[in-house]
Amino acid sequence: AFRFAVDELKGADGMQAHAEGRGVVELLAELPDLWDVNISDWSNDSATSRFEPNEGYQTKYIEFVKQVTSKPVVAVGRFTSPDHMVSLVKRGIVDFIGAARPSIADPFLPEKIKSGRIEDIRECIGCNICVSSDNLGVPIRCTQNPTQGEEWRRGWHPEKIAPAHALEPVLVIGGGPAGLECASQLAKRGYEVTLAEASDQLGGRVAGEASLSGLAAWKRVADHRIYDLQRRANAQIFLQSSLDADDVAELGIGHIFLATGAKWRRDGVGRSHRKAIPMDGSVQVFTPEDIISGVEVPTGPVFIFDDDQIYLGGVLAHHLAEAGAPVVLATPASVVSPWCDNTLEQERIQASLLSMNVDLQVGKTLARVENGRAHLTCVYSGKGKTLEIGSVLMVSERRRETTLFEALKQRRESGDLDVKTLEIIGDAASPGLIADAVYSGHLAARNLGEDPKRAEQALFEREIISLEG
């Protein structure tokens, strides 16, 4: 087999599919047993759904290959739709479908297609958390498939889970990524599951972030789990069901998981500031939740202070600029969204924001907001800079929502609440990526009824090779 990138997406400065790329394939046409064709470099080949929202985005570059060789051809392109896959084969573009990221999200993708279980496919969302694991040199993770990387260490199977240790009811509070995954897996184990969500829709932060520019595919994280729960007779879902400690105690359910999430801070506390940033109230201060909920920002430049430095600051800047707002994005980092180097997106993010005339103030921290002006300080030189602004959007740090958990914990400790399990999961336990929240929910569901010592041991299990004789 020969893997060959027919286009480097560099124009005349690199390999082009219609020129040298085709020429090389024609020259070597019958030599390989199999042609595995794609584009390069890795950031193009494994582009995220944020910048390549359509599956099969490489097809236009590789579709000529079958015309010049009689040998089998395989291609990739983050394919998730079986209909699309079949279409490529029937149209004579490829003989085989390559599916790296889609098969990470669902290792049983081929089997589910073969058996007609299309609705059970756990579709890749193209977030590149799997790629980030490789770049960070850590065990692989997948937002959609929390068992990825835990098959040996913990013995997790993506399609199988141990049956319930006892036929007892379970209450999951919060319908975000952690709550949905926890409830779905508990129901799969056979528990009677009640899922209570305070708002009028499930999905939590996933539903909100998926409404922003470029992140629509992320909604699959919620959709897959909602569909699974809705078809299970042992799972009940209650929307607009905000519970307090009295409500929970009245239900009398012995196993309780709280996935109440986390809220973005409005005071600017984050990586660079461990105290609130001085602000005189001359402009409105918004949080990501405000923008997601559709709050209208005042006229004048929206000043985004991105001290989170992961992905959301850049997404919000793009979203607001696309809506026509003048945007300034300031960050103490030397580039925008530096963490996205790990997902192969950073350069695309910065280029796209510049193309939308977003004013990027990198390497600068926000010292204070006063009289409608943002006072910035260079993190390297200490020199100041002042900008006229219309509003502030803080993307700094999230505060865990633990009020209900603390109230229940206090009652349990005083003997006023008799429950066997009281566990906080997801962002409410530790704010992180969506993948972290899903993993947390999955882990909690797996560990219910498990010997705590065995569950803890799985964290440290390692394979040790020894020689005998």
Structure, described:
There is one protein chain. This protein has helices at about 15-30, 40-45, 60, 65-70, 80-90, 100-105, 110-115, 130-135, 175-190, 205-210, 220-230, 245-250, 290, 310-320, 345-355, 405-415, 435-445, 450-455; strands at about 1-5, 35-40, 75, 95, 170-175, 190-195, 235-240, 255-260, 260-265, 285, 300-305, 325-330, 360, 365-370, 375-380, 385-390, 390-395, 400, 420-425. The mean pLDDT is about 95. The chain is of the alpha/beta class and about 475 residues long.
SSE layout and pairings?
Blueprint (H helix, E strand, L loop, with lengths): L1 E6 L9 H12 L6 E5 L2 H4 L13 H4 L2 H4 L4 E3 L6 H9 L5 E2 L3 H5 L3 H6 L14 H8 L32 E5 L3 H13 L2 E5 L8 H5 L10 H11 L4 E4 L6 H7 L3 E4 L3 E3 L19 E3 L1 H5 L9 E5 L5 H11 L4 E5 L14 H10 L3 E4 L1 E7 L2 E6 L5 E5 L2 E5 L2 E3 L2 H12 L6 E4 L9 H14 L4 H6 L12
Parallel strand pairs: 1-2, 2-3, 3-4, 5-6, 5-8, 6-7, 8-19, 10-17, 11-12, 11-17, 12-13
Antiparallel strand pairs: 9-18, 14-15, 15-16
